[in-house]
Amino acid sequence: MKKTIVAAACAAAYACGAHAQNSVTLYGLIDAGLSWTSNAKGSKLWQAGSGNVTGSHWGILGRENLGGGTSALFELENGFSVTNGSLRQGGRLFGYQAYVGLANDRYGTLTLGRQYDPVVDYLAPLSFTGRHPGGNNLSMHPYDNDNLNNSFRVNNAVKYASVDFAGLKFGGLYGFSNEAGGFADNRLYSVGASYANGPLLFGAGYLQANNGGSSNTDGALTLTDRSFIAARQRTYGAGVNYLAGRARFGAVWTRTQLGGLDTINGANGLGLVQNGQGASFSNYEVNASYAFTPFFSLNGEYTFTQGTLSGADGEHRPRWHEVSVQADYFLSKRTDVYAQVSYQHIGADGAGLGADIGGQTPSSSNQQTVVGVGMRHRF
To answer: Signal sequence: where (predicted)?
Structure first.
């Protein structure tokens, strides 16, 4: 729940009545907990963590009514670690988002700055890992290959989001390279749409990033943001959710194709993908939630991922199986406690890859289990 604070006290130059139309909103979420990992580089691991399920963050959202159905708006959103107070997203003060723009009741919203892409806006909420508010870090698809868990944001971005047309919403984004003579060197563009009709909600999105191993650190993506460093990344997919009383059921399909792949997660520790060869991931997720009471719900998902990875010793086709089950209990409208178990297994032709549940230390074997308990508070 967000609470609105008045941006400034009434002054002689301004009428107090203007505050009814102009506002600054402070909001945030803190997630702190404990987790146990069955295999972290060959050892069991107990640890305290920040954002085991939902990344801890806070933000400021401002809006000024310009008249005629048009408003100026801005948002500054910070990610941090609650365990040690450090900044996340590569040490950025506002690593989640930082943008300014205009919104119109008829024509939609145009914003400029560091922002989420339309795959995150329109498709991710239909998945368990990207469902808002908050998402679920322990349930991301391998290496968050489709960005449904929002591992990266887009710099230098111009973004448009439509108004709601009888349930239909759509948008697009372009992140500039900001490089003289290199218009396509480290750029990103993305489109997405969603449609709500009664108990059904549909969503789809497409994203393409051209970044490679470029030395252009001022482009759309930075090294600390990228899940992959590749000459080209294409991600696309679609999903559906169905609401039936207290239950919610969902299915999501995504595919990511990588050309000229150099590293995964910013390091070549895998030792498999090298020499600028390619890779692809196809993710098939089903998820469900059921609210037993207004305060207690049980949530879960299963994802099957087909991978193709090219290395110096030929082509490999690993298969990932992921299962997550979460119990969530709200102590109030703003505070909840949760317990979650996530399991990942890599099947045939895993090419020596260790299981790697999102946000955890990779396993030395082809399977890994993580048990997490924690508390979240929203303000």
So the answer is: 1-20
pTM: 0.90
Phi, psi of 370 (to 5 degrees): -125, 130
pLDDT tens-place string over residues 206-262 = 999 997 556 788 899 887 777 787 889 999 999 999 999 999 999 999 999 998 887
Tokens of 28: 């945030």
Do 57 and 84 touch, CB atoms closer than 8 A? no
Query: Which SS3 state, helix, strand or coil, does residue 141 take?
Result: coil
Question: Is 270 in contact with 277 (CB distance < 8 Å)?
Answer: no
CA 68/CA 119 separation, integer angstroms: 31
User: pLDDT tens across 323-332, in order?
Assistant: 999 999 999 9
311, 272 contact by CB (below 8 A) = yes
Q: Provide the CATH topology of domain 30-378.
A: Porin (2.40.160)
Tokens of 256: 């990511």
